[in-house]
Amino acid sequence: MSDSVNIPEEGIAKDDILEAMRGYREGDADWKAGRTWSLVYYAGEEHYDLLKEAYTMFMSANGLNPMAFKSLKRMEAEVVRMTAGMLHGDEEVVGTMTSGGTESILMAVKAARERAGFLQKWPMRPEIVAPRTIHPAFSKAAHYFGAKMRYVELDEDYRVDVDALEKAIGPRTMLVAASAPQYPHGMVDPIEEIAQITRKKGVPFHVDACFGGFMLPWVEKLGYDVPVFDFRIDGVTSMSADVHKYGYAAKGASVVLYRDMSYLKHQFFVETEFPGGIYASPTMAGTRPGGAIAAAWAAMRSLGEDGYMELAKGAMDAKGELVEGIEALDALEILGSKHATVVCFRSKDPGVDTYALADQLQERGWAFDRQQKPASLHCTVNAHNASVIGEFLADLEEAVEHVRAHPELSSEGDAAMYGMMAKIPVRSAVKMSVRKVMEEMYGKNAAEPDLGSITGDEDSDWMLQLVGRYGDRVLDVLDEVDNVRKRVTRMILG
Prior knowledge:
Aspartate Aminotransferase, domain 1, alpha/beta, PyrdxlP-dep_Trfase_small, 4-stranded antiparallel beta sheet, 13 strands, carbon-carbon lyase activity, Aspartate Aminotransferase, domain 2
């Protein structure tokens, strides 16, 4: 074990520590230069400096005890109130801040589960009904809280099929969820139509606006066609919105909102018998970092509506330029991407593999998401991406021609791995193999992530080894096995 993973016997000098940290980040995505199409939301250096100062001012403060740190409770309450107002909530709408979108969703699911029990509607295994494109945090919440996901497929516009969703709701349904927008294709689900169904059936309805909650209100005000998605709709009972995305706050800041206290109260946890005193917690976390609360408050107060409108316009203008450039390339097509700042595209040319195209763009220094079902590439556009749109489109055109001239690239590098993983019909094999990558990343010999290792060693999953060795012949057999499984399932279920 190297010295770098032991606590040093003597402390290391500040300059040496900072130099080492700068070295560590040399391989990170270059987000300030606009070459990152997700993960980071940047509103300029002046705003960035404000966030650092606000965060540092409350860096040691702990939101666990609102009596000791009344400033944090006040700022949290104001962030919640400002967010509720932005999303057209009335004075009854209440909520809390959380560490991020996943925790906001966990809390909404937990509250729905507790509420179902309180109303004596507790099924053996409660269900969450949601589109296939709902964020995986709902699946995580179901796993944590003993619920089951009941997924509904999409229509041709990449929005949830409302008729299928209505049929999926049953006596075990404790929550229905939809997205504004969904992450893969940037489409807002038909929230008004879903709310009509949930009102009729008496089921809580959560709108996950973690991604778009701090963007869509301003895009709508700019005159773009944005379906109504928020508390203006009777039947929406809870919402989530991330301040650290298009709210341009520091990481670790989201908001979960409820129509009224009759929903929020089921989120809380109270323990009265602990010898150390009565313990009460509004969210998953015990210690709640004051810096994240303070920076979120500072971001919203500093930018104001005019600042958010300006950033939204910059992002939408950049998105429009990006879409126009992609559509000009005959090998590519846009998927969805109508309602927000997402641009999702893929190759429609059999001679240009989408994942090989991704490899070429990555080699040119671009960071973005590879997607599946169907294979596609995802760009989350920010205003600061505007300065590099031309460069990206030039690299994209060059990459298309390079992949077309070198068809062997589809069976090399990450393209081969992503393409294979997307084709395997027995999804448990993929899940097991990704878990093995995580074991390597977080094990005793923690390493940088290497997705290629999924198929590269003797301990990797037997099915993936077969696919890696025999390719399409194995995939054909697996497809047939999966078809038989589906036929048997239909026979059993009638």
